[in-house]
Each structure stands twice: as structure tokens, then as C-alpha cells.
Amino acid sequence: MILKSMRKISVFLSHFLMDYIQEVPQSLTDDESVLPQDLLCDFLLEKISLTHPLEANGVFDLFLNILELMSRWDSDFEVYEVAKKICNRCKMGMDLPPERCFGLIINAGTLREAMFEKFTFEKIIQVIRIDLKMPCDKEGCEKRNYVQRMIYKPPTVFTIALEWENNETEGEIFDTTSVLKTEIDINTIYQYKGDSAVTKYRLASMVCSHGNQYNCVAYEKKRWVRLVGSEEEVIGDWDGVLSKFRNLHIRPEILFFEN
């Protein structure tokens, strides 16, 4: 389902078809019934490292593992975040070195807190990120301060992972997912210092847990669909997606937004 979700990202799909397939040994492509994505899946299943018990393999961790195996494409997903802090007590300022990551990890429960009732999705994420305080580096001070987070280059794909407790009620799932939006502006989440005028992103696909199974919910042909195993279910508009999440207790765990 991770791979199916990634294939709904247009830039990833085009890179995969143009780059990977050209390098597949001819012996593997003689059978025209073998689809390119099946070749990629077989390749990853052979190489990917799993921990035991299998339940310990987090979805986002598996996604990062896949990116490691496809390192020539991971630049589409990477974000270089710069943290800047000024101590309120001693006024010492510091710019930390750029930190490379592949998106944000957000606790799903924080999205439904009352204090965020009138905030947009990206504004909530901004506040959550700002609230991650860091201690002052000056010896003897060590006061914890809010941190400004900046990026200088927008990623092609912006990834948000949601961490769930797995015991949420139907109402809590709806309260959380109803905060999600299909379009975000990364200039709200970060202090963007680059020169690109394009800072808005559209939700392309999601990896979702459904009991002990996983689904892919994706936007294609101007409507939302849910992929369950080899079956495809047409959902329709975004309100239909939210209803599906609530009624079937489906939890979106990885969201892929495309620039």
C-alpha cells in the first residue's frame, strides 16, 4: 500500500517509469504480463529489512526503509530544515545546521485539541512545530525556548505521518481527520526563505490503516478512490473520504502532498 500510494504521486511515477524500468534486466521483462510496479515490489520485498515481531514495523519506518533502497529518488521527498532560536533570558541567538528529513511526524491526537478549533490544518502544524522547545546552549542558562523553523527549498513531495494510539473512538477519528485538508501552503508551516512562488501542495494519496489491514486512498481522475488489496472502490468527493474514515474506523497514517 505504501508503493501504491507513492505511485499516485505523478513525479515519482514518471521517474520510476523512465529511470528504474530502463535498468531492469531484460530477462525480467520478457514476460509482458509482468507489470513494472510488480517488478519494483519484488525488488523491495527482497531487499527490505524487517524487524520482529512484524507488528513492530511502523508504516513510516517502512516508508523510510523504501527510500533508502531507492536513494536516487529520495531527493523528491527530502526537506532541509533550519532551526533558529533566540533565548528569551540571555538573548543568545543560534542558527542550527540544516537537518535533512523526509517529512513531519505529528501525533494524531493533537490535531483535535480544543485550542486549535478555528485554525487551519497547516496553522495547527506550525503551532505544534513551534511548541517543540529547545534549551539554550549558553552554559548556565539552558532556558527552553520556542524555535523558528525555516526551509530554503520546497520539496517536490511533502510528507506528513500521523501517529495514532489505535484505540480511538469513531468520534475521535472523525474529529482528527476532519482537520485534514487536501491543499496546504508550506509557507505557513515553515518560514520559507526561498525564491519559488509555488508553495502550495495538493494531497495526492494516503496510506491508511484499517484494523490489521492497510488501504491506499488516492486522488485520480478528479475523484477519490480507495484501493483495498487488488480492488478499487470509488469514493467521490473529500466529504465522502471523511465519512469513510469515520464509518469504517480508517486511520490515515502517511499523507503525500505534491507540489
Could you please describe the fold and organization of this structure?
The chain contains nine helices and 15 strands. With 259 residues, the chain is α+β, with helices and mostly antiparallel strands. The protein has one domain (1-15, 59-258): Cysteine proteinases (Cathepsin B, Chain A), CATH 3.90.70.10. Strands 4, 8, 9, 11, 12, 13, 14 and 15 form an eight-stranded mixed sheet that branches. Strands 1, 2, 3, 7 and 10 form a five-stranded mixed sheet that branches. Strands 5-6 form a two-stranded antiparallel sheet. The radius of gyration is 20 Å and the shape is globular. The two termini are 21 Å apart. The mean pLDDT is 85.
Radius of gyration: 20 Å
| Proportion of residues in helical segments | 25-40%
CATH fold call: Cathepsin B, Chain A
Number of domains: 1
CATH architecture annotation:
Alpha-Beta Complex
Mean pLDDT: 85
CATH superfamily: Cysteine proteinases
Major β-sheet, in short? Answer: 8 strands, mixed
Note the total helix count: 9
- Under the CATH scheme, which class? Alpha Beta
How many beta-strand elements? Answer: 15
Low-confidence stretches: none
Order of helices and strands: HHHHHEEEEHEEEEHEHEEEEEHE
Strand content: 25-35%
| Spatial shape | globular
Structural class: alpha+beta
Give the N-terminus to C-terminus distance in angstroms: 21 Å
Keywords: Hydrolase, Ubl conjugation pathway
InterPro entries: Peptidase_C19_UCH (IPR001394), Ubiquitin_hydrolase_53/54 (IPR052398)
Pfam family, one: UCH
GO molecular function: cysteine-type deubiquitinase activity
